[in-house]
Amino acid sequence: MLPLSAATRARLEALAARQPSEMARFWRLYPAVCDRALLNTARVQAQLIATA
Fold first, then answer.
1. How many CA atoms lie within 13 A of 44 on its CB side?
2. 14 φ/ψ angles, rounded to the nearest 5 degrees
3. How confident is the model at residue 1 (pLDDT cuts 50, 70, 90)?
4. CA dihedral 7, 13, 14, 18 (to 10 degrees)
5. I need a surface site. Which of 3, 17, 47, 49 has the fewest CB within 10 A?
6. What is the DSSP string of 1-52?
7. How does pLDDT run across 6-38, given as a tens digit for each residue?
8. Where are the chain's structural domains?
9. Which residues lie below 8 Å from residue 39, measured CB to CB, with a gap of 6+?
10. Radius of gyration of the chain (CA)
């Protein structure tokens, strides 16, 4: 696995947060997280979408 810089990881997390259902599905596979609050927000959004 190639190491990612913190800036690259943060940018990819922000892009992934645009698809909360997919982010919630795969978040356990992320080797590191830059913005834990963004991850949690996306996971909550995914739960709300799933229950709507």
1. 6
2. -65, -40
3. low
4. 160
5. 3
6. -----HHHHHHHHHHHTTSHHHHHHHGGG-S--S-HHHHHHHHHHHHHHHH-
7. 999 999 999 999 999 999 999 999 989 999 999
8. 9-51
9. 13, 17, 23, 27, 30, 33
10. 11
